[in-house]
Write a structure and sequence with these properties.
The complex is a heterodimer. By secondary structure, chain A is of the alpha/beta class. Chain A is built from eleven helices and nine strands. Chain A folds into two domains: 54 residues; 215 residues, Glycerol-3-phosphate (1)-acyltransferase (3-Layer(aba) Sandwich). In chain B, strand 1, helix 1 and strand 2 form a beta-alpha-beta unit. The longest helix of chain B has 20 residues. Chain B is globular. The chains are: A alpha/beta, B alpha/beta.
Chain lengths: 340, 332
């Protein structure tokens, strides 16, 4: 994974120089007390690494605690008084930053994600990322976002179109919108792209999420190519993304129509651990991941009426699907064994 | 167009009276008539107050005599108030609007009809697009009584508009109003000692500040367009943020129990304001796209969603015995 900072993404014009580079959020930007604990560990490690003896490193780390606690309490008080901002989609950057350390752990230690090709993600302006999908919890979307936040020279938060059913669930519904999820509706995608956002979609939809273990990494039909229409209409480039590893975290061995009807879910997966172990069964398996961002497919060259051209839409949709599928097979070979 | 003649229904409401006052002061308006069963809130200078019930066919005789060219329909009831049954609300909304349109049929002078309708027609749906544009009014079934009322009014209005191409028919779809001087479902909800919320739901809400609501109505009278126009403040605000900004205490109720608690509260007289529409709003929220209002009508609201709520909160802080958490935290 080598990305030289300042390298123009997408081969377009370089990012404007007045734009301050967005640093990914650090452990300090978290809610008390997790933030305090994390920065305590970080300071301790820094102290030991810088060569001081363990006792003084510990003293230094403890010395920082009151300030951290104060900061955490101040932030919690401010938020409880309504002092936080959400954009018109309900995206709350501070909330998303607070989850960063946990997601960073999942990214670095749990799934050991390797990333390739972040330069292909435009650093500004609209773009549509199209990826393979697995699992009802959109871990793949979250990890694509993490890859951009951690590896991209000019990181930004992507928005994701999320399965509609999630928005009927308590807690899930607002947690999703606070980290950048929106209802999977073409109207939402078009509006986001018109606002110059980076949008991620999973055209496989529920068919992808409910793939059997034996069908993993075999791309399902890409709907009716709705995502291509959206890209053509907004003239946003399409960035195919291949995620290897996500399809092994919940090996689905069956499904229950009865439980699906009872819970209102689009399908109810049965895995070796779920629902046998209850909520514990939702812990994803620690497979090894590899995310590859492929070369963007520009859509600017087609006219504004191209979105109605069924043949073109179908062609582009198939092209994107082929790229993702090919990269998936390549990635599987490069990654090697899933649980090594 | 010199010397316009305007008739306002529902002149006894806050917005109706304020609208009449503003129109009176406008030199371009030759004549203002106000129709209602309740007299205007303040003494109006040159508004002709017509005491009549909008549901009564007598307005078919009354309206042509006024020779107005613009009719502003401002009498769509959004919630059954105290002493008003759901049936009466339905009658005023649907039968009243029908009678009014019937009266307009008999008035050859009418050139413009502006209805202050509701964005409630879009409903509150978990799978809905996060911003409704004007053509999305038929995406979902109309679930509540009020929604069906508004749907019926819009249908009649559309038919009327087709039959009378010379008349500019404008349907304004208002989001709930908020502001220091208004009495709406939102302000009643925020006026409760503790506010009930759905456990685990924090919907995006969108309002219009009352002063912007009035200005939007005036702008629409000045520059009427055919068809529907959404009226709302730019931006949205999360329910939790609104509750925190206004310094309220919320009591989360699990979704299956919510209707029971709401009914119980209504029985006890605690929350009369929780209509089924408002209940759905508290769970799933709703926001609309306002590009048509800004670009075509040419009106840009002064308050965005957060500013409107803050403006309301400022006037409420003096009314408390126990200071709000927010005031304790943010005091210098």
């Amino acid at each position: 994974m080598s990305v030289r900072p300042g390298e123009p993404a997408l081969g377009r014009e370089p990012p404007p120089s007045w734009l301050p580079p967005r640093t990914p959020p650090s452990g300090e930007a978290t809610l008390f007390p997790v933030g305090a604990a994390l920065s305590f560990v970080r300071r301790l490690r820094e102290g030991v690494e810088s060569g001081s003896d363990p006792v003084s490193a510990l003293a230094g780390a403890i010395g920082g605690l009151p300030a951290d606690a104060q900061e955490g309490i101040d932030r919690a008080m401010r938020r409880l008084a309504g002092g936080y901002s959400e954009d018109e989609w309900g995206f709350d950057e501070e909330f998303a930053d607070a989850l960063f350390p946990f997601l960073e752990f999942m990214y670095e230690r749990w799934w050991r994600v390797q990333v390739e090709g972040t330069v292909h993600v435009p650093s500004h302006g609209p773009a549509l990322m199209v990826s393979n999908h697995a699992g009802i919890v959109p871990w793949d979307g979250i990890m694509i976002g993490m890859a951009i936040l951690k590896e991209h020279p000019l990181p930004r938060y992507p928005r994701f179109l999320v399965l509609n059913w999630a928005f009927t669930l308590p807690y899930v519904s607002f947690a999703l919108r606070k980290v950048g999820g929106v209802v999977a509706s073409p109207y939402n995608a078009i509006r986001l792209l018109e606002q110059g956002e980076l949008v991620g979609v999973f055209p496989e939809g529920v068919k992808g999420a409910g793939k059997d273990w034996g069908d993993r990494y075999r791309l399902q039909r890409f709907g009716r190519g709705g995502f291509v229409e959206i890209a053509l209409r907004t003239r946003a480039p399409i960035v195919p993304v291949a995620v290897v590893g996500s399809e092994e975290i919940h090996p689905k061995i069956g499904e229950s129509a009865l439980l699906a009807r009872a819970t209102g879910a689009p399908y109810f997966p049965i895995t070796p651990t779920f629902p046998l172990l209850g909520p514990l069964g939702l812990v994803p398996l620690p497979s090894k991941w590899r995310i590859e961002f492929c070369e963007p497919i520009p859509t600017e060259e087609y006219g504004p009426d191209a979105a109605e051209d069924r043949r073109l839409v179908f062609e582009l949709s198939e092209r994107v699907r082929d790229v993702v599928q090919e990269k998936l097979y390549e990635g599987l070979v490069k990654r090697g064994r899933a649980f090594a | 167009m010199a010397g316009r003649r305007v008739l306002i229904t529902g002149v006894g409401s806050y917005l109706g009276t304020e609208l009449a006052r503003r129109l009176e002061r406008d030199p371009e308006i030759e004549y203002v008539a106000g129709l209602d069963t309740r007299p205007p809130r303040v003494k109006l200078e040159r508004t002709d107050y017509l005491e009549a019930d909008i549901r009564n066919p007598v307005i078919t005789k009354l309206l042509p005599q006024t020779e107005v060219d613009t009719v502003v329909h401002n009498q769509i009831v959004r919630r059954p108030g105290p002493g008003m049954s759901a049936q009466a609300m339905h009658d005023i909304n649907v039968i009243g609007s029908l009678q009014l349109l019937g009266a307009c049929e008999r008035s050859p002078t009418v050139r413009t009809i502006v209805i202050r309708g509701s964005a409630g027609i879009y409903g509150s749906e978990p799978q809905a697009p996060q911003f409704f544009t004007e053509e999305m009014s038929r995406l979902y079934p109309l679930r509540t009584r009020f929604q069906r009322d508004v749907g019926e009014i819009e249908n009649y209005f559309e038919t009327y508009s087709r039959r009378h191409p010379q008349v500019t028919c404008m349907m304004l779809r208002y989001q709930p109003a908020i502001g220091p001087s208004t009495d709406s479902q939102v302000t009643r909800y925020l006026g409760l000692p503790v506010v009930p919320t759905y456990l685990g739901f924090d919907p995006r809400l969108q309002f219009i500040h009352v002063s912007d609501g009035l200005e939007a109505l005036l702008a629409s009278i000045k520059n009427p367009l055919r068809g529907a126009v959404n009226v709302a403040a730019p931006g949205t605000i999360g329910l939790t943020k609104m509750i925190r900004l206004t310094g309220k205490t919320s009591i989360p109720i699990a979704a299956p129990l919510f209707p029971t608690v709401a009914t119980l509260g209504r029985r006890l007289g605690a929350f009369s304001s929780l209509s089924p529409d408002f209940g759905r709003l508290l769970r799933y929220g709703r926001a609309v796209d306002t590009r048509r209002l800004v670009e075509e009508v040419g009106f840009r609201p002064r308050f965005d969603g957060v500013a409107a709520v803050e403006d309301y909160a400022r006037t409420q802080s003096g009314k408390r015995i126990v200071p709000a958490f927010r005031d304790l935290v943010t005091s210098p």
